[in-house]
Amino acid sequence: MTTMKLILAPMEGLADFWIRQALTDIGGYDWCVTEFVRVNGLLLPPKVFYRWCPELRTGARTRSGTPVHVQLLGSDPACMADNAAQAVALGAPAIDLNFGCPAKTVNRHRGGAVLLDEPELVHQVVSAVRAAVPASIPVSAKMRLGNLDDALALENARAVAAAGASWLTVHGRTKVQGYRPPAYWDRIGAVREAVSLPVIANGEIWTPEDAARCQRESGCDAIMLGRGAVSDPYLARAVRSGERAQWPQVRAQLETFMQTLVGTGKPAQEAGRVKQWLNYLRRQWPEAEVLHQQLRRERTLQGMFGLLERLV
Ligand SMILES: Cc1cc2nc3c(=O)[nH]c(=O)nc-3n(C[C@H](O)[C@H](O)[C@H](O)COP(=O)(O)O)c2cc1C
Predict the structure, then answer these.
(1) Residue ranges, the chain, pLDDT below 50
(2) Within the chain, how many helices (H) and strands (E) appear?
């Protein structure tokens, strides 16, 4: 039994309310983080925060009681501060700041990973947000090792620490390294050694063995799980217990997920969400690959349920 902290990663377009609910129902997570809320010069109205974080309506916790932190992405310190204060007023228990997004549209507007070229600006954003919310509310940052290379990794981490952040998550790749394996867990370790605040290690953890190796190489006792968590919904529990789930359990979770999606969107969107999850599940489960082949032509949940019944 590990005492490691496990966090479900923010994943825009993937780890939304429904996936957060499904994964935290299964359990093993200390908290999760919303998809990024884009801050671009305006004080966002409450409805925007509720859209990205519907859990704000239920005490900022998922159905199973797992806390949900709100992530903001932007580069204007004053505007980030105002929006952080707004999120906290709506019930956010913690604010995370995104300095890692590689998307071109985001980077073009001076957001996400490109900010890692400007540690001074990183410092200003974190400082402004830290000053704008009560001391009881943690403010954290999430960064990659760098933008084009990792030369400024320690400087950025020190900037985050000096600004008073409560912890720092490091995805062990630069922006240009994208999502290509490996993630450089040893480099996360170098960052951890350079700062006194807690560092959460992230990147390329797909199995309990990966988690253990990441912990060893980074020296971090907190780990954030991203795509691996979606590919194996029991991953956090497996990291904690050492026991791997069996396919029937995963399939039952998928069916529960399908039930919860009924009536949440247009039929094709609902079916699309199921296909999206299956697309991740098939990385780890051969049975999911078979199911994916069978369900991919269905355009509605109804059709999928019918097919599943015939497959039993
Ligand atoms: C589809 C997708 C969307 C993502 N969206 C966000 C995001 O909104 N905010 C963020 O900080 N990181 C985001 N990330 C990065 C992840 O949080 C994580 O750092 C990255 O996937 C590496 O972890 P992994 O190898 O365990 O997936 C996203 C990643 C993916 C795959």
Answers:
(1) none
(2) 14, 8
